[in-house]
Amino acid sequence: MSKVNIIGPSMPNIPWEERPEGHKDVLWRYSQNPVIPRDLLPNSNSIFNSAVVPYEDGFAGVFRCDDRNRYMRLHAGFSKDGLSWEINPEPITFECDDPEIGNFIEGYDPRVCWIEDRFVVTWCNLYHGPTIGVAYTHDFKTFHQMENAFLPYNRNGVMFPRKINGNYAMLSRPSDTGHTPFGDIFYSESPDMEFWGRHRHVMAPMGGWQSKKVGAGPIPIETSEGWLMIYHGVLNSCNGFVYAFGAALLDLEQPWKVLYRSEPYLLQPSTLYECVGDVPNVAFPCASLVDAETGRIAIYYGAADTVTAVAFGYVDEIIEFVKNNSRVE
Ligand code: BMA
User: Fold this and answer.
1) Cα 313 to the chain's mean position, in Å?
2) Is 28 exposed, middle or buried (0-12, 13-18, 19+ CB in 10 A)?
3) Whose CA is nearest to atom 1 of ligand 1?
4) Is the pLDDT of residue 49 over 90?
């Protein structure tokens, strides 16, 4: 039984593996990682930074599959157990009233959020530079694309799973045309998911593993302690960027107010599949599954921009860790 109150569904079929004996960290990796190999599809170079949700009696998701031209594509996929995935070999074709928006060039780093009566997909959409694409689906077969949320340049658009103060709400991270050497998380609201405004600053990079830039990861989890936001942080090493992840608690009604923030990371690239790949030293979370009953959480993250991995933990323990190791500037 979870100690904190988690607002969300019970998920008795959540993918799960017990904490290995003697393991002291808050999160532990699935022993069979990576769950999605780079060559699952005939034409895939890599499958990573992807989003999964509970769907019907199993799970569905939107996957970043870079093809063998190294074009970044979004594919739908399905799974009975959340660990073994069938991904459609063809990318998603989005239906859109305006071809100016619908004919985007490439899409990557999707998030999927159940809100009201539909799944809303947000992703980094190349439209004269990266910005936030938005679409919705009911069945992971037909996807209706809406207006891009923001002007370029922006990445890591992450919806909240309910309206806040009467408006839809999204986190994002304004950026530049390249591999952006900066990045703060911002909060924006919209009455209709088309026009976004009331932008508020949430958090800036801090020291250490999160000193270069930060960006929201999975859909924030609503708890009695605040919104649990798992986010990636980037350190600029002499050998390039290192992507690790941590967590923060945001105020429930004013989510731009950070209540607690983990000064140490929760997970840092340390295994072979996180440290070796197309982009070494990357652990990039884009989704989580949570069982509100037990507090079990399965975090899905891209490893080394090549494969998809899962880490397990308990929401209670993550919150305790964030509170006990917090620094808010
Ligand atoms: C970011 C994004 C992510 C990627 C990361 C590490 O800028 O492109 O998709 O995982 O860099 O390469």
Assistant:
1) 16
2) middle
3) 179
4) yes
Which amino acids bring their CB within 6 angstroms of ligand 1? 49, 108-109, 179, 243, 279, 282, 284, 302, 305
Per-residue pLDDT at 106: 95
pTM: 0.98
List the Cα angle 268/269/275 in 5-degree steps.
Answer: 170
The CA dihedral of 72, 73, 77, 82, to the nearest 10 degrees, is 20
* CA atoms within 13 A of residue 151's CA, in its CB half-sphere: 2
Atom of ligand 1 nearest to the CA of 175: 7
The pLDDT, as a whole number, for residue 329 is 81
Q: Which two tokens stand for residue 105?
A: 């060039």
Check residue 1 and give its pLDDT: 75
Q: Which sign does the torsion angle of CA 48, 140, 99, 162 carry?
A: negative
What is the reported pLDDT for 242? Answer: 98
Neighbouring C-alpha atoms within 13 Å toward the C-beta of 178: 2
Which pLDDT band holds residue 104 (cuts at 50, 70, 90)?
A: confident
Token readout for 51 is 């989003």
Hey, which of 284, 300, 306, 308 would you mutate to test ligand 1's pocket, going by the most ligand atoms within 8 Å of its Cβ?
284
- Give 176: exposed, middle or buried? Use CB within 10 Å, 0-12, 13-18, 19+: middle
| Dihedral class, residue 220 (left if φ above 0, else alpha if ψ from -120 to 50, else beta) | beta
Ligand 1 atom closest to the Cα of residue 109 is: 9
Which residue type, as a one-letter code, is found at position 244? A
Q: Percent of the chain beyond pLDDT 90?
A: 97
| 238 within 8 A of 272, measured Cβ to Cβ | no
pLDDT of residue 321: 98
Q: What is the mean pLDDT of residues 243-267?
A: 98
CA atoms within 13 Å, Cβ hemisphere of 19: 12
Q: Tell me, what's the pLDDT at 276?
A: 98
Cis peptide before 71 (omega within 30 of 0): no
User: pLDDT value at position 20?
Assistant: 97
